[in-house]
Amino acid sequence: MKVAAIQMVSGTTVSGNLEQAGALVREAAAAGAELAVLPEYFCLMGRRDGDKLAVREPFGGGAIQDFLARTARECGLWLVGGTLPLEASDASHVRNTSLAFSPAGECVARYDKIHLFRFENGRERYDESRVIEAGGGTASFVLRDRAGRDWRIGMSVCYDLRFPELYRALAADVLLVPSAFTYVTGQAHWELLLRARAVENLAYVVAPAQGGEHENGRRTWGHSMLVDPWGEVLGRREEGPGVVIAELDAARQASVRVQLPALEHRVL
């Protein structure tokens, strides 16, 4: 099964970001991708954290969700909308939500990011909890590819990558990590963590990212990647918008899991 990790450098207007995302998804579909995954905040990288509040949507309706459903249907592929802001329990917060859509345009899974990023090094400061309300559980879905094979897809977002227990709980064949890593943390840890999650779960990892200089002045690390269950990087894009495509081989994954049955050897 071919999959696509879509890298973006999202700006400050939803309409412009959706236009770019649509073009990149169509590029992925034309290359034969059956699953395309957009990065975290694909629809908006605002000038301020609070800009998310103005574009939040109720679950099940809104321009961003309509775009995802329509694009999945028109392109005939499974589409995961990295993250978008959905309504939270109070008016001062949003949920940072990843939604998966089938080729029929149906929403088949919802994951609200459970780990909220906080970082301060004297030059940069981030605290997602100021505007984002954490989710409360895991999410996965079963994708049947065009060959009739079922894949268990586990959902996560960005900072979740630092919490390996989440991925153990997902017990998936393919792990999704749409992200917007900062340049500093990405340079230090992005590839290391992605390959570790792939190896310890003997799973494929699809990690689309924001990658470049944004209108709001933020710089994201990029390096969108596809990693196989042995930790080999199948494809990457360092910076700028684009599509990274690779073939996921179910037989190779099965062989690796037989040769090194670490998942069966778990004690804790």
Automatic annotation (TrEMBL):
GO terms for molecular function: hydrolase activity, acting on carbon-nitrogen (but not peptide) bonds, in linear amides. Keywords: Hydrolase. Pfam families: CN_hydrolase. Residues 1-250 form the CN hydrolase domain. CDD domains: nit. The keyword Hydrolase applies. It comes from the Bacteria. This is Carbon-nitrogen hydrolase family protein. It comes from Ramlibacter lithotrophicus.
